[in-house]
Structure formats: structure tokens, C-alpha cells
Amino acid sequence: MTTARPPIGEVYEPGNIPGELKAMARWSPWRAQWNEKRGKWDKIPGNQRSTAKPETWLSFEAAQAELHAYPTGFFAGLGFVVTGLPEFTFIDID
């Protein structure tokens, strides 16, 4: 297995994200961190955010601004926090 940094953030196209999700303040840039024990990459929310602390999540626009405010490669992508949304079904294909 390779531990090369995942290419997920390189396929970011905001126009493909449904407006219903963009309207929710559940966003954060994330960084990739190799988890040796699990043998896979973890997605770590940026700037001291937590999937368990909704008060730290951002609007889509604020998360995009933060993603682009840092040097290329600092964050691996932009993530949507799916925690606590029983009315939705999500599939993580990476």
C-alpha cells in the first residue's frame, strides 16, 4: 500500500455540489494525515475544528475562502460534515 498523499482535493468542482448542501454551515477545509494503525488516510478538519463541535463549522463560502487563503497543498480538500443528518444518505467513495 502506498502512503502517497491522496489526490482527492485535486478534483474539487464547487459547481457539482448541490445548493441544499452549500446552504448548510457544515463545511471545513481538511488536511490528509496518514494513520499507520488503520493503514489509510484520515481527513482532519482544519484549524482546530471538530466533527463533534458544530460551532466550529463554516458556511460553504467561508470554507472556500479559508481553503484558498492557504498555500496550495496545505489543505487536501473541502469537506462537508455529515454528522447528525439522518434525513440524508451519504456515500464516501474515496
Question: Helices and strands in order, then pairings?
Answer:
Elements: H1 19-22, E1 27-35, E2 40-45, H2 60-69, E3 77-80
Antiparallel strand pairs: 1-2, 1-3
Entry keywords:
about 20% strand; 2 helices; alpha+beta; about 90 residues; three-stranded antiparallel β-sheet; globular
Strand content: 15-25%
**Side-by-side strand order of the widest sheet:** 2-1-3
Spell out the helices and strands N to C.
HEEHE
User: Main β-sheet, in a few words?
Assistant: 3 strands, antiparallel
Mean pLDDT: 87
Please tally the β strands and state the result.
3
Detailed description of the structure:
- There is one protein chain.
- The protein is an alpha+beta fold and 94 residues long.
- The protein has helices spanning 19-22, 60-69; strands spanning 27-35, 40-45, 77-80.
- It has a three-stranded antiparallel sheet with strand order 2-1-3.
- The protein is globular and about 35 Å long.
Could you provide a short overview of the structure?
By secondary structure, the protein is an alpha+beta fold.
